[in-house]
Write a structure and sequence with these properties.
Blueprint (H helix, E strand, L loop, with lengths): L2 H24 L3 H26 L2 H33 L13
Helix pairs in contact: 1-2, 2-3
């Protein structure tokens, strides 16, 4: 890869992280928060792949990315399960209602 592609991937990655963090801070809707986390994690996986290609260890980077994707899916499924429970109990997915949940 040339320097232009590496720089472009870094810029896009940082923009994705900023967009994900903006999605986390801007809303109280639990599904939008999960989407923000997913966007930020996609940038992290892109950074891992970029670091692997720069260091010449692409196979190792791809292994780490697969591990990150599996962990990311587990976190997303648990968060969506909490969101569904929140919606069933209160009729909205506002995270401020999480304080009221008992179990």
């Amino acid at each position: 890869m040339n320097a232009f592609v590496e720089t472009a991937m870094l810029v896009v990655g940082f923009l994705l992280i900023i967009a994900g963090c903006y999605g986390l801070i801007r809303t109280y809707h639990l599904l939008k928060i999960v989407i923000g986390v997913e966007v930020a994690m996609k940038a992290v996986t892109m950074f891992i792949v970029l670091a692997g290609f720069i260091n010449g260890k692409a196979a190792l980077a791809q292994t780490f990315v697969i591990t990150v994707i599996v962990i990311e899916v587990v976190v997303a499924v648990v968060a969506v399960g909490i969101a569904i429970n929140l919606y069933n109990n209160y009729g909205s997915m506002d995270v401020r209602n999480l304080k009221k949940l008992k179990g």
